[in-house]
Amino acid sequence: MATWTWFHKLSSPPHFYRIAGKMIPWYAIPAALLIVAGIYGGLVAAPADYQQGEAFRIIYVHAPSAWLSLMCYTTMAVAAAVGLIWRIKLAHALAAATAPIGASFALLCLVTGSLWGRPMWGTWWVWDGRLTSQLILFFLYLGYMALRSAYDDLQRADRASAVLALVGVVNVPIIHFSVYWWNSLHQGSTVIRKDGPAMPPSMLVPLLMCFAGFTLLYAALACVRVRAEVLNRERNATWLKELSPS
Amino acid sequence: MNPVTTSLGRAAWLVLERDLRLALRRWEQITHPVAFFLMIASLFPLALSPEPSQLRNISPCVVWVGALLSSLLALESLYRSDQDDGTLEQMTLSGQPLPVLLFAKTVAHWLLSGIPLVVAAPLVGLWMGAPERTFGVMMLSVALGTGVLSFLGSVAAALTLGTRRGSVLLSLLVLPLALPVLIFGAKATDLAMRGESPAGAVLLLAAVLILTVTLAPWASAAAVRISLE
Q1: Which are the contacts of B42, defined by CB distance < 8 A and separation ≥ 6?
Q2: What's the rounded mean pLDDT across residues B119-133?
Q3: Does pTM top 0.90 for this prediction?
Q4: Region B53-62: what's the mean pLDDT?
Q5: B residues 133-172 closer than 8 Å to A (CB)
Q6: ipTM, 2 decimals?
Q7: A167 interaction partners in chain B (CB closer than 8 Å)
């Protein structure tokens, strides 16, 4: 019972607006610390890779962005489903706020991957399975945002784009598998594998810090963006007028 | 509301029959996408080179890119006119399950847009110098693939019904989702051309078709309801 009241409270815009505002520093400050420490550990402290030399260091940006681009899509789809099923407007606001963040991380992952590919594979771009499926993920984000912006009415935009997000999330594994089956040149997984991570701790710890830092950065950005969405959606509500007398 | 007196199968059949009849009265709805398909195919030799060996190598690609783009073109007509004259609204109010009616509509669309492409595919294959023994696999894969495209497209077409600039948006939504079809379909034709067994790719394509046919009508129905609000 208690959890449900908590959930209902959180899903009401005024409460969320207040709580999210308080949570931003709690996410943003650890995110900044972790990212700075992780990037320092990765770019300066960690030893160079015996095969890839200094170039491997781009993994400290590349891998966390890849993870976040996928996590954002999942978050978006779950939020969209919650919004469709229980008609919670705040969930739609979260989905709407997450899409551009996810698209940015997907783009960041593509750009860093391309930069990494130049010294390793000798070319800026190869039509490799993982790169291509990341590119398609980026296209899926673009489609989602395009559909959302094509509607004038916010509620219809919410529900239509929610259906698209769900169709997309069913398709993502199929796309991923098909592209993999088509062609793959990308190196295998480094962190998650059966016989433990294929990295010494001096390389692994900064990477994990970057993962955690990027994830917290997403949480902070999502709070800011959902608050902005709430402001936009509730601009005529009385609680907002009481909040700012001007 | 009046009680529903028509059985479900009968209602679906009526929708299918109506769409087929309407399309047969307006031939250009069928012929334009095929003409577009043939034109796309003729662009490749002009842009690449008339060298037969090069063209033969890219023939699966030409057939599949052409089929994908022309089936996109055909999607425009799936719901648009029915929305304009209110038929779609009547369907949602009819008391029959909307997913089943939309399933029938999409099957009709597949018959009208997919089958002509299946017939035209060997012609494009001939132009590109693909060996005749691959035509069977080519036609089968195009038949399965256009099915997936019709059902995926029915969701996207329904989602864009409520928007003004539909057609570019429709392509943006469908193309990324349709890539597995392109990969499996082109691979099947390619494998057949190299004299290997295309069974794996064809079966994967069939699996994608079954999944899409099972799930897409429900998503289309949800999307139509949102668009008509």
Answers
A1: B127
A2: 89
A3: no
A4: 88
A5: 152, 155-156, 159-160, 162-165, 169, 172
A6: 0.86
A7: 152, 155, 177, 216, 219
